Amino acid sequence: MTRSSRVTLAVAAVALALVYLLPLWHVALRAPQYPEGLGMYIAINKVVGAKPHDLANINNLNHYIGMKMIVPEAIPELRFMPMLAGGLIGLGLLAALTGKRPLLYLWVGLFAAGVVAGLADFYRWGYDYGHNLDPNAIIKIPGMSYQPPLIGSKQLLNFHADSWPASGGWVLAAALLTGMWLARREFRSARRSPA
C-alpha cells in the first residue's frame, strides 16, 4: 500500500472509535398528543431516550398496542457490538501498519458484511416488535402492524415515525466508504504494478 493509503486507513480505523461515544441510529415519533416528539437513540451498547423519559413513554405507548417493551439489557447485540467494533479498529490499524493489501481487503469485506448484517438484524428486530403483538392488547386493529421504518419515514396510526443514522452511523458510513475507495485504488495499483 502507498504511504497515503496507509495513513488514510489508519485515520478511518481510529475514527471508528467515535462509535463508542456517538449514537448509531435515531428513531423519532411525532403525534398530536406529543407535539415535542418522542425519540430514542441506539448506540453501540445501549438504547436511550432522546429526552429523559422518552424510552419509558415509548414503552407505555407500545403496551397499548401490544408491542413488547424495549429493554436494552435484553438485547444481546448491545453486549457484543463493542467487541466487534474493537476488532475492526484493530484489524484496520494492523493493515495500515503492515501495508498489506490483503488485510485492507479483509478489513473492508468484514466491515461491509458487518454493516449489512447489522441493518438486517435491525430490520428483523423492528419486524418482530411491530408484528408479534400481544393478542390481549388494549388497542387492536385487525391487519395493522407497527413496524418502524428501517430507514426513512412512515405513518403508524397517528404517529409519524422517522428512522435515520445518527452521528455515529454517519461516522461508520464515512469510514466504510473510505475503506472501499482505498481498496479500489490499491487493487488498481496492484494490477498495474504487482508488488
Could you characterize the architecture of this molecule?
The protein is of the alpha+beta class and 195 residues long. It has one domain (3-192). The chain contains 5 helices and 5 strands. A 5-stranded antiparallel sheet has the order 3-2-1-5-4. α1 packs antiparallel against α5 and α3 packs antiparallel against α4. It is elongated and about 65 Å long. It starts with a helix and ends with a helix. The model has no long low-confidence stretch (mean pLDDT 93).
Q: Which features characterize this protein?
A:
single chain; 195 residues; alpha+beta; 5-stranded antiparallel beta sheet; 53% helix
Short description:
The protein has 195 residues and is α+β, with helices and mostly antiparallel strands. The chain has helices spanning 3-15, 54-65, 77-98, 101-131, 167-192; strands at 25-31, 34-42, 47-49, 152-156, 159-165. It has a five-stranded antiparallel β-sheet.
Set out the fold topology:
Elements (H helix, E strand, L loop, with lengths): L2 H13 L9 E7 L2 E9 L4 E3 L4 H12 L11 H22 L2 H31 L20 E5 L2 E7 L1 H26 L3
Helix-strand category: alpha+beta
Helicity, as a percent range: 40-55%
The run of helices and strands is: HEEEHHHEEH
Strand order of the largest sheet: 3-2-1-5-4
Note the total helix count: 5
What is the assembly state of the chains in this entry?
A: single chain
For the biggest sheet, the summary is:
5 strands, antiparallel
Proportion of strand residues: 15-25%
Q: What best-fitting shape do the alpha-carbon axes yield?
A: elongated
Radius of gyration: 20 Å
Counted beta strands? 5
